[in-house]
Amino acid sequence: MIDIRQSVQYANYLEKEGWIVERFDGVNYFIRKFLIFGSILKLQRPEKIDFEVIDKLCRKYRVFQVILEPKNEFQTKFLASNGFKLSKSTYLPSKTLQIDLTQSEKTIFQNLKKDARRAIRRGQQPLVIDYLSPAGVRKWREAWRFAVKFDRYVPGVEQLINLRKSFPSDNSLFLASHNITGSIIGGVLFTNVSHEVAYYWYGFTNKEGRSSLSQYSLLYQGLLWAKKQGCKIFDFEGIYDPRFPNRSWLGFTHFKKSFGGTEVLYPGCYTKFRLPI
Protein backbone atom coordinates (compact mmCIF):
# COMPACT_ATOMS: atom_id res chain seq x y z
CA MET A 1 0.00 0.00 0.00
CA ILE A 2 1.63 3.25 -1.17
CA ASP A 3 1.44 6.14 1.29
CA ILE A 4 -0.22 9.33 0.06
CA ARG A 5 3.10 11.19 0.45
CA GLN A 6 4.52 8.97 -2.29
CA SER A 7 1.74 9.72 -4.77
CA VAL A 8 2.06 11.92 -7.84
CA GLN A 9 -0.90 13.96 -6.58
CA TYR A 10 0.84 14.83 -3.32
CA ALA A 11 4.03 15.70 -5.19
CA ASN A 12 2.03 18.12 -7.34
CA TYR A 13 0.54 19.63 -4.20
CA LEU A 14 3.91 20.27 -2.54
CA GLU A 15 5.28 21.76 -5.76
CA LYS A 16 2.41 24.26 -5.69
CA GLU A 17 3.38 25.03 -2.10
CA GLY A 18 6.93 25.97 -3.08
CA TRP A 19 8.80 22.69 -2.56
CA ILE A 20 11.16 21.21 -5.13
CA VAL A 21 10.14 17.65 -5.95
CA GLU A 22 12.48 15.09 -7.46
CA ARG A 23 11.02 11.70 -8.33
CA PHE A 24 13.22 8.64 -8.85
CA ASP A 25 11.92 5.14 -9.46
CA GLY A 26 8.48 6.03 -8.07
CA VAL A 27 9.80 7.68 -4.89
CA ASN A 28 9.19 11.35 -4.02
CA TYR A 29 12.05 13.44 -2.62
CA PHE A 30 11.00 16.84 -1.26
CA ILE A 31 13.53 19.67 -1.05
CA ARG A 32 13.10 23.05 0.61
CA LYS A 33 15.73 25.71 -0.09
CA PHE A 34 16.94 28.29 2.44
CA LEU A 35 18.73 31.39 1.23
CA ILE A 36 21.90 31.07 3.31
CA PHE A 37 22.13 27.64 4.92
CA GLY A 38 21.36 25.39 1.97
CA SER A 39 18.41 22.98 1.85
CA ILE A 40 16.61 20.24 3.73
CA LEU A 41 15.58 17.00 2.08
CA LYS A 42 12.46 15.19 3.24
CA LEU A 43 11.59 11.60 2.41
CA GLN A 44 8.35 10.21 3.86
CA ARG A 45 7.35 6.54 4.01
CA PRO A 46 9.00 5.50 0.76
CA GLU A 47 8.71 1.99 -0.61
CA LYS A 48 12.49 1.81 -0.63
CA ILE A 49 15.46 3.87 0.53
CA ASP A 50 18.20 4.60 -2.00
CA PHE A 51 21.20 6.31 -0.42
CA GLU A 52 22.85 6.86 -3.79
CA VAL A 53 19.92 9.03 -4.87
CA ILE A 54 19.86 10.78 -1.48
CA ASP A 55 23.58 11.56 -1.71
CA LYS A 56 23.18 12.84 -5.28
CA LEU A 57 20.36 15.20 -4.24
CA CYS A 58 22.26 16.34 -1.14
CA ARG A 59 25.17 17.46 -3.31
CA LYS A 60 22.90 19.01 -5.95
CA TYR A 61 20.91 21.13 -3.47
CA ARG A 62 23.52 21.63 -0.72
CA VAL A 63 21.41 19.75 1.84
CA PHE A 64 22.32 20.28 5.50
CA GLN A 65 19.62 18.03 6.98
CA VAL A 66 17.95 14.85 5.74
CA ILE A 67 14.56 14.05 7.31
CA LEU A 68 13.40 10.51 6.71
CA GLU A 69 10.23 8.91 8.05
CA PRO A 70 10.48 5.18 7.41
CA LYS A 71 7.56 2.94 6.58
CA ASN A 72 8.57 -0.07 8.68
CA GLU A 73 11.07 -1.39 11.21
CA PHE A 74 13.25 -2.97 8.53
CA GLN A 75 13.95 0.49 7.12
CA THR A 76 14.84 1.85 10.60
CA LYS A 77 17.70 -0.64 10.91
CA PHE A 78 18.93 0.47 7.51
CA LEU A 79 18.83 4.10 8.66
CA ALA A 80 20.57 3.46 11.98
CA SER A 81 23.43 1.71 10.18
CA ASN A 82 23.86 4.84 8.05
CA GLY A 83 24.12 7.35 10.88
CA PHE A 84 20.48 8.47 11.22
CA LYS A 85 19.11 9.26 14.70
CA LEU A 86 15.55 8.98 16.01
CA SER A 87 14.00 12.41 16.50
CA LYS A 88 12.00 13.34 19.61
CA SER A 89 9.10 14.47 17.44
CA THR A 90 7.59 13.49 14.10
CA TYR A 91 6.36 15.32 11.03
CA LEU A 92 3.81 12.67 10.09
CA PRO A 93 1.47 11.05 12.61
CA SER A 94 3.34 8.05 14.04
CA LYS A 95 0.14 6.22 14.96
CA THR A 96 -3.14 6.02 13.11
CA LEU A 97 -6.41 4.12 12.75
CA GLN A 98 -7.50 2.33 9.60
CA ILE A 99 -10.89 0.90 8.67
CA ASP A 100 -11.31 -1.97 6.23
CA LEU A 101 -13.70 -0.63 3.59
CA THR A 102 -14.07 -4.00 1.86
CA GLN A 103 -16.59 -4.85 4.58
CA SER A 104 -20.26 -4.21 3.95
CA GLU A 105 -21.72 -0.83 4.88
CA LYS A 106 -23.85 -2.61 7.49
CA THR A 107 -20.77 -4.19 9.10
CA ILE A 108 -18.87 -0.89 9.12
CA PHE A 109 -21.79 0.79 10.89
CA GLN A 110 -22.16 -2.05 13.41
CA ASN A 111 -18.44 -1.80 14.27
CA LEU A 112 -18.87 1.80 15.36
CA LYS A 113 -19.09 2.45 19.09
CA LYS A 114 -22.58 2.91 20.51
CA ASP A 115 -22.21 6.68 21.00
CA ALA A 116 -21.05 7.13 17.39
CA ARG A 117 -24.00 5.17 16.00
CA ARG A 118 -26.41 7.21 18.11
CA ALA A 119 -24.80 10.49 17.05
CA ILE A 120 -24.99 9.56 13.36
CA ARG A 121 -28.66 8.66 13.64
CA ARG A 122 -29.54 11.97 15.30
CA GLY A 123 -26.99 14.21 13.53
CA GLN A 124 -27.72 16.57 10.70
CA GLN A 125 -26.91 15.29 7.23
CA PRO A 126 -23.98 17.18 5.68
CA LEU A 127 -24.25 18.88 2.32
CA VAL A 128 -21.57 19.01 -0.36
CA ILE A 129 -20.41 22.58 -0.87
CA ASP A 130 -19.20 24.01 -4.17
CA TYR A 131 -15.63 22.78 -3.73
CA LEU A 132 -14.81 23.33 -7.39
CA SER A 133 -14.87 27.10 -7.08
CA PRO A 134 -12.42 29.30 -5.14
CA ALA A 135 -15.46 31.04 -3.63
CA GLY A 136 -16.73 27.75 -2.22
CA VAL A 137 -13.34 26.88 -0.71
CA ARG A 138 -13.07 30.39 0.71
CA LYS A 139 -16.47 30.09 2.39
CA TRP A 140 -15.56 26.68 3.83
CA ARG A 141 -12.24 27.96 5.12
CA GLU A 142 -13.83 31.10 6.61
CA ALA A 143 -16.24 28.93 8.61
CA TRP A 144 -13.26 26.93 9.89
CA ARG A 145 -11.39 30.08 10.95
CA PHE A 146 -14.39 31.32 12.98
CA ALA A 147 -14.97 27.86 14.49
CA VAL A 148 -11.63 27.59 16.32
CA LYS A 149 -9.48 29.71 18.59
CA PHE A 150 -7.22 32.33 17.07
CA ASP A 151 -4.02 30.39 17.86
CA ARG A 152 -5.21 27.23 16.09
CA TYR A 153 -3.62 26.53 12.73
CA VAL A 154 -5.94 26.89 9.74
CA PRO A 155 -4.54 26.45 6.20
CA GLY A 156 -4.82 29.44 3.89
CA VAL A 157 -7.31 29.61 1.05
CA GLU A 158 -4.64 29.17 -1.62
CA GLN A 159 -3.26 26.13 0.18
CA LEU A 160 -6.70 24.49 0.20
CA ILE A 161 -7.26 25.38 -3.45
CA ASN A 162 -3.85 23.88 -4.31
CA LEU A 163 -4.83 20.73 -2.47
CA ARG A 164 -8.07 20.50 -4.39
CA LYS A 165 -6.30 21.08 -7.72
CA SER A 166 -3.74 18.39 -6.91
CA PHE A 167 -6.44 15.88 -5.96
CA PRO A 168 -9.04 16.73 -8.62
CA SER A 169 -12.41 15.23 -9.51
CA ASP A 170 -13.31 12.35 -7.19
CA ASN A 171 -9.89 12.23 -5.46
CA SER A 172 -10.92 14.83 -2.88
CA LEU A 173 -14.14 15.90 -1.21
CA PHE A 174 -15.12 18.91 0.88
CA LEU A 175 -18.21 18.38 3.05
CA ALA A 176 -20.00 20.89 5.25
CA SER A 177 -22.82 20.62 7.79
CA HIS A 178 -25.35 23.47 7.88
CA ASN A 179 -27.88 24.67 10.41
CA ILE A 180 -31.43 25.75 9.51
CA THR A 181 -30.22 29.23 8.55
CA GLY A 182 -27.72 27.78 6.08
CA SER A 183 -24.60 28.64 8.10
CA ILE A 184 -21.74 26.15 8.08
CA ILE A 185 -21.36 24.59 11.53
CA GLY A 186 -18.76 21.97 10.63
CA GLY A 187 -16.65 20.74 7.76
CA VAL A 188 -14.32 17.93 6.69
CA LEU A 189 -11.92 17.29 3.85
CA PHE A 190 -11.06 13.84 2.53
CA THR A 191 -8.57 12.73 -0.12
CA ASN A 192 -7.81 9.41 -1.74
CA VAL A 193 -4.95 7.98 -3.75
CA SER A 194 -5.84 6.02 -6.88
CA HIS A 195 -9.07 4.92 -5.21
CA GLU A 196 -7.08 2.64 -2.87
CA VAL A 197 -6.68 4.52 0.41
CA ALA A 198 -8.83 7.43 1.60
CA TYR A 199 -7.56 9.92 4.18
CA TYR A 200 -9.38 12.04 6.75
CA TRP A 201 -7.38 15.18 6.00
CA TYR A 202 -8.98 18.06 7.93
CA GLY A 203 -12.03 18.53 10.12
CA PHE A 204 -13.66 21.24 12.22
CA THR A 205 -16.91 22.11 14.03
CA ASN A 206 -18.04 25.27 15.78
CA LYS A 207 -19.90 25.31 19.10
CA GLU A 208 -23.25 24.71 17.42
CA GLY A 209 -21.82 21.88 15.37
CA ARG A 210 -20.36 20.18 18.43
CA SER A 211 -23.62 20.45 20.37
CA SER A 212 -25.51 18.85 17.47
CA LEU A 213 -22.79 16.16 17.09
CA SER A 214 -22.49 16.98 13.40
CA GLN A 215 -18.85 15.80 13.34
CA TYR A 216 -20.01 12.18 13.54
CA SER A 217 -22.30 12.30 10.52
CA LEU A 218 -19.72 14.33 8.59
CA LEU A 219 -17.01 11.73 9.10
CA TYR A 220 -19.37 8.86 8.41
CA GLN A 221 -20.35 10.44 5.10
CA GLY A 222 -16.65 10.52 4.26
CA LEU A 223 -16.42 6.80 4.99
CA LEU A 224 -19.34 6.13 2.66
CA TRP A 225 -17.81 8.35 -0.04
CA ALA A 226 -14.50 6.48 0.18
CA LYS A 227 -16.25 3.11 -0.05
CA LYS A 228 -18.27 4.33 -3.04
CA GLN A 229 -15.02 5.36 -4.75
CA GLY A 230 -13.79 1.80 -4.39
CA CYS A 231 -11.19 2.53 -1.71
CA LYS A 232 -10.12 -0.48 0.35
CA ILE A 233 -8.85 1.40 3.41
CA PHE A 234 -9.92 4.53 5.27
CA ASP A 235 -7.04 6.17 7.17
CA PHE A 236 -7.80 8.59 10.02
CA GLU A 237 -4.38 10.22 9.52
CA GLY A 238 -3.24 10.29 13.12
CA ILE A 239 -4.16 9.51 16.72
CA TYR A 240 -2.37 10.05 20.04
CA ASP A 241 0.90 8.14 20.38
CA PRO A 242 2.47 7.91 23.88
CA ARG A 243 5.89 7.40 22.28
CA PHE A 244 5.70 10.97 20.96
CA PRO A 245 3.13 12.50 23.33
CA ASN A 246 1.04 15.47 22.28
CA ARG A 247 -1.78 15.86 24.79
CA SER A 248 -3.76 18.13 22.48
CA TRP A 249 -4.41 15.01 20.37
CA LEU A 250 -6.24 13.16 23.15
CA GLY A 251 -9.64 14.74 22.46
CA PHE A 252 -9.91 13.97 18.76
CA THR A 253 -8.30 10.55 19.34
CA HIS A 254 -11.28 9.60 21.53
CA PHE A 255 -13.58 10.81 18.76
CA LYS A 256 -11.77 8.86 16.03
CA LYS A 257 -11.64 5.67 18.09
CA SER A 258 -15.43 5.69 18.35
CA PHE A 259 -15.44 4.64 14.68
CA GLY A 260 -13.52 1.45 15.40
CA GLY A 261 -10.72 0.34 13.10
CA THR A 262 -7.27 -1.13 13.56
CA GLU A 263 -4.36 0.76 15.10
CA VAL A 264 -1.27 1.11 12.90
CA LEU A 265 2.16 2.13 14.25
CA TYR A 266 5.01 3.74 12.35
CA PRO A 267 8.64 3.93 13.56
CA GLY A 268 8.86 7.72 13.89
CA CYS A 269 11.17 10.29 12.31
CA TYR A 270 14.91 9.88 11.68
CA THR A 271 17.27 12.72 10.86
CA LYS A 272 20.87 13.23 9.84
CA PHE A 273 22.84 16.46 9.60
CA ARG A 274 25.59 16.97 7.06
CA LEU A 275 27.79 19.74 5.76
CA PRO A 276 26.21 21.38 2.70
CA ILE A 277 28.82 21.00 -0.03
Q: What does this 3D model show about the protein?
A:
The chain is globular, with a radius of gyration of 20 Å. Helix 1 (8-16) packs antiparallel against helix 7 and helix 5 (114-122) crosses helix 9. The chain has 277 residues and is of the alpha+beta class. The strands form two sheets. Strands 7-8-9-10-11-6-12 form a seven-stranded mixed β-sheet, sandwiched between helices. Strands 1-2-3-4-13-5 form a six-stranded mixed β-sheet, sandwiched between helices. Helices cover 34% and strands 27% of the residues. The chain has helices at residues 8-16, 51-61, 73-80, 105-110, 114-122, 134-147, 157-166, 207-211, 214-228, 250-257, and strands at 20-24, 27-34, 38-44, 63-69, 85-86, 95-100, 127-128, 172-178, 184-193, 197-205, 233-235, 262-265, 270-273. It has two domains: 4-91 and 267-273, Aminopeptidase, CATH 3.40.630; 103-231, 3-Layer(aba) Sandwich (Aminopeptidase).
CATH fold field value of the largest domain: Aminopeptidase
Strand order of the largest sheet: 7-8-9-10-11-6-12
Total number of helical segments? 10
Radius of gyration: 20 Å
How would a textbook summarize the main sheet? 7 strands, mixed
Please tell me what the overall shape is. Answer: globular
Percent strand equals 25-35%
Structural class: alpha+beta
What's the count of strands?
13
CATH homologous superfamily name of the largest domain? Gcn5-related N-acetyltransferase (GNAT)
N/C terminus separation? 36 Å
Helix content: 25-40%
Uncertain parts? none
Q: What oligomeric assembly is this protein in? A: single chain
Q: According to CATH, what is the class of the largest domain?
A: Alpha Beta
CATH architecture of the largest domain: 3-Layer(aba) Sandwich
Task: Sketch the topology as an H/E string, one letter per element.
Answer: HEEEHEHEEHHEHHEEEHHEHEE
Structural domain count: 2
Average pLDDT reading:
94
